[in-house]
Amino acid sequence: FSYAVNYRCSPACRWKGLSLGLNGKFSDDHVFLYFNNQPISGGKRLTMNGFAGYRTQLFGRNANVRLNVTNLREARGYVTTEKVNVGGTLRNVHSYPLPRSFLLTTTVDF
Q: Using CA atoms, how far apart are residues 95 and 23, in angstroms rounded to an integer?
């Protein structure tokens, strides 16, 4: 299941030109590994990314400045431990998520 939400302020709004958004993906439990011929299932996860953008004039030309943030829900350096079912026995599986990152982009119309 993937999702995306985008909101752009109207021209009559105080924050004319501002847009905000979220997107991400929900993954349910799945078989991701076999251990001693037993399936290891797990991996339920909700990812979330966000952005803020602003349309303005830059040097007399239309421009868009946008800040993207990936992994809003993951904190840098945290290890996630999940309980997974391996042949009827619960085991701990550790995952090491990608760190949160930021990307600033600017586009200018010519």
A: 22
